Amino acid sequence: MAAERALLDVQDLRVSFGEGPRARPALDGVSFSVRPGKTLAIVGESGCGKSLTALSIMRLLPTPPARITGGRILFDRGDGPALDLASADRRTMRRLRGKDIAMIFQEPMTALDPVYPIGDQIGEVLVEHEGLSRKDALARAVELLRLVGVPSPEERARQYPHEFSGGMRQRAVIAIALACEPALLIADEPTTALDVTVQAQVLRLMRDIQQRFASSILFITHDMGVVGQMADEVVVMYLGQVVEEGPVSAVLSRPAHPYSQGLIASIPTLDMPRDRVLQPISGMVPPIGSITTGCRFRTRCPHAMEICRRDPPKVTTPAGNSASCWLVEEST
Amino acid sequence: MSWILRRLDAKGILGFAILAVVVLCAVAAPWLSPLDPNAQDLASAIAPPAFGGGTAEHWLGTDRLGQDVLSRIIYGSRVSLVTALAAVAGSALVGTVLGMIAGYFGGFAATVVMRLVDIVLAVPFILLALVFMTVFGPSLLNVIIAFIAARWTQYTRIAYGLVLELREREFIQACVAAGLTTTDILLRHVLVNLAGPLLVVATLELGFVILIESGLSFLGLGTPPEVPSWGGMLQEGRALINVAWWLTTFPGLAIMLTVVGFNFIGDWMRDQFDPRTGSVRPTEIGSRD
Amino acid sequence: MRDDGSRALLLSVRGLAKRFPVHRGLFRRRAGEVHALNGVDLDIAPGETLGLVGESGSGKTTAGRAILRLLEPSEGLAFFRSRTVAQAGGPETVDLFQAPPSQLRLLRRDMQIVFQDPYSSLNPRLRIGTNVAEPLRAAGMSRPSRREMVAQLLDDVGLASSLMERFPHELSGGQRQRVAIARALALQPQFIVADEAVSALDVSIQAQVLNLFLELQRARGLAYLFVAHNLAVVRYVSHRIAVMYLGRIVELADTDALFAQPRHPYTEALIDSVPGAEGARAVVQGEPPNPIRPPSGCPFHPRCRYAQPVCATERPPLRQITPASAAACHFAETLDLQGV
């Protein structure tokens, strides 16, 4: 990974909720990088901080109470040194959002403005960032709708969000995100609100688009199946930390961290033997800020030991995935 | 009780303090008031307040009949409080029951109730009260009835909207599935979820009723003259406003302070029940992904 | 499918239909009806789980609620073998849809529901103990025995009985769902409708709750109607599965048969759509149609890649294809559909 320059390099990112002694760390030293033209998936359960990571990169954190307290978010624009988004000013961020980095949200209905036609909403981004005239922007919007597989785009561009079905709305949202051909696309659970057959269509669309534009995708999801289908690399998060990362095939087939193992063992799949009993992780995710030292997973880990009270080292396995766990070191 | 104390802010403290003073006046009027409010002393009529050149016998001065203004204000709190509490309790009861029925059963019941609300809201309240008092004669009871007849709509509208939303919530469905009777569901499950917002409305209504009751008394449509009331005092003092400013100023201040007090409490309660400004649960922060 | 006469069925639904009026325009005039459910037949044996899968608008949720009479069905019969009614001297089987209110009250003890959203399925202003005890109170149990029973129920679903004194907002989503299950179990029902009961939960919690459902079934002989959109979840818990599309059952088969050899193209499309590492399988076109304007003929034909002219004109009935599966497709015997 070192040879190639990363498009996005998140280093030791820290985000806290609240101020002073009552501040609770929601992201606690998160590091990962997204390579050009690749898809990195962040996977984890509620409260692990995956959406917070996406919002930090976009600098859309609800401030207050959330605040970036440390780390760097290096974004390579291809000209000169990488830009640190963690400390970039509002103007820089505004110019970046929608142009270099675009975001696709979970709820297509709330991501669209109900009072403007779809075409205008796509065109608006182009008028803002590319300086296109309204007429040119609208023509380009029709092209984009065609690209994302919306049938009869000329008519559809004049329609309002409520006239679109759920799947078509998400396609429109993707069209807006693609308008300026951003280098990085952040997708936060983009198919969770969709029906399964429509989810399959949207996932395929995103895959096609990535190949066509060679863009990078940061894909946030809770669904291991989606990870397997979409991602090249995966980051597993638990309680504000990265517990494991690596190539998708390695992490899914040979998870090294007990949390990743537990996560995979608790998901029913279509090809598992019918008589196999799921092995859920015991207990539940503790509140943010309740465990601030050592391995955060130790309260639920079946292999927890005394040493787990100390921060675990990050160890890379022969398969190529690296996990932060005392046990992994022993086995290699 | 302790949780109330812990959450009190400046507005809440001020509101409850004012309320405490008014309630104390109403309950302990015979002991607190220096003189009999109806004792006439024509010799010392229209005496200015003690600090405005008058005597210490009448702190806030006397009126045209020589009755002590301070004592009448203290006794006047009784009329204001009793009217307000009775009118608000009555309208809250009527309005909540109708709103719950309309919201839960929908259909014809909802059409009838909500059209009635529209009609009542279309009639100006003062007009309604004027007609009512002219027909039935001015009395404390009729003032209260007039309030109930007009103000139940406030609770009905809010209860109706909330019940419409609650009815679809799954815990109500679970109650139906568990075989609870409709009365049980309405009283044990729907009402508890309405209580907060309706209490806020009721508190704000208390202030409103006091204000309007004073207005009615001022117009001579409220309480009979022998019963000391703030509005009645204003009415009597109106003619002498150029010679005896204290006859209108002090009852006016009493009305204003009491209304402000109730509004402060109402605002404070609204903050408490509003999930965005109320007590934020720590587990909810950061559970957005 | 099982031979109909061989086992006494717990529930037998025939011709279930549910229509909702559609209002349009300035004066909210009744403009027509949506057929949310259209001639649904299904059987559930004691101790059996029937999975009900489908996308939005398929009517799966409506079916569960209509069977429990949380929604009044428009048409149909539902014969239920009620223990409580029989004990009270009533007939051995009752038609749920014809039951008068007094009998329905008794029937409610035998059939319960667990909802999707653990945040809205508990009364936020009542303590956990009170929430769980409501069905017991309605059944006339005294306060001390209610308390004892609630403690036992919480223990049965893997919660500490000390949670009784807490309020719903103090519990996590998984804990709340366990509370909702405890409440459903309170009257010792024979039959539970689980309406997307695990879809709002995180995967590790979801597995815990799924296993809880299975344990409770083993321990108490419960029958489930397990409504869900996640195929893998339904496969994990169900003995048989009904696939719904636009208010109708398009395939009804034993779980193994359904996945080994689907008999309806829509079932194949659902299996194809499950995201996974392969990801190379065919993607079905279009979206579930609006039930207000259902297509002619077979409801799936506009999206079906095997559609023939006949599919647009004639609606195929659900018919037995093999002993293990029934499907509503003109070409169920000849198509070679891909399973897992």
Automatic annotation (TrEMBL), chain A:
It is found in: Cell inner membrane. Residues 8-264 form the ABC transporter domain. Its main location: membrane. Pfam families: ABC_tran, oligo_HPY. SUPFAM superfamilies: P-loop containing nucleoside triphosphate hydrolases (SSF52540). Keywords: ATP-binding, Cell membrane, Membrane, Nucleotide-binding, Transport. The keyword Methyltransferase does not apply. It is a peripheral membrane protein. CDD domains: ABC_NikE_OppD_transporters. One of its GO terms (molecular function) is ATP binding. It comes from the Bacteria. PANTHER family: DIPEPTIDE TRANSPORT ATP-BINDING PROTEIN DPPD, OLIGOPEPTIDE TRANSPORT ATP-BINDING PROTEIN APPD. Belongs to the ABC transporter superfamily. This is ABC transporter ATP-binding protein. It comes from Alsobacter ponti.
Automatic annotation (TrEMBL), chain B:
Keywords: Cell membrane, Membrane, Peptide transport, Protein transport, Transmembrane, Transmembrane helix, Transport. CDD domains: TM_PBP2. Residues 77-266 form the ABC transmembrane type-1 domain. Pfam families: BPD_transp_1, OppC_N. InterPro entries: BP-dependent_transpt_permease, MetI-like, MetI-like_sf, OppC_N. The chain crosses the membrane at residues 12-32, 81-107, 119-151, 198-223, 243-266. It is found in: Cell membrane. It is a multi-pass membrane protein. Its main location: membrane. PANTHER family: D,D-DIPEPTIDE TRANSPORT SYSTEM PERMEASE PROTEIN DDPC-RELATED, OLIGOPEPTIDE TRANSPORT SYSTEM PERMEASE PROTEIN APPC. Belongs to the binding-protein-dependent transport system permease family. This is ABC transporter permease. It comes from Alsobacter ponti.
TrEMBL record, chain C:
It comes from the Bacteria. Residues 11-271 form the ABC transporter domain. Pfam families: ABC_tran, oligo_HPY. CDD domains: ABC_NikE_OppD_transporters. It is found in: Cell inner membrane. InterPro entries: AAA+_ATPase, ABC_transp_ATP-bind, ABC_transporter-like_ATP-bd, ABC_transporter-like_CS, Oligopep_ABC_C, P-loop_NTPase. Its main location: membrane. Keywords: ATP-binding, Nucleotide-binding, Transport. It is a peripheral membrane protein. GO terms for molecular function: ATP binding. Belongs to the ABC transporter superfamily. NCBIfam families: oligo_HPY (TIGR01727). This is ABC transporter ATP-binding protein. It comes from Alsobacter ponti.
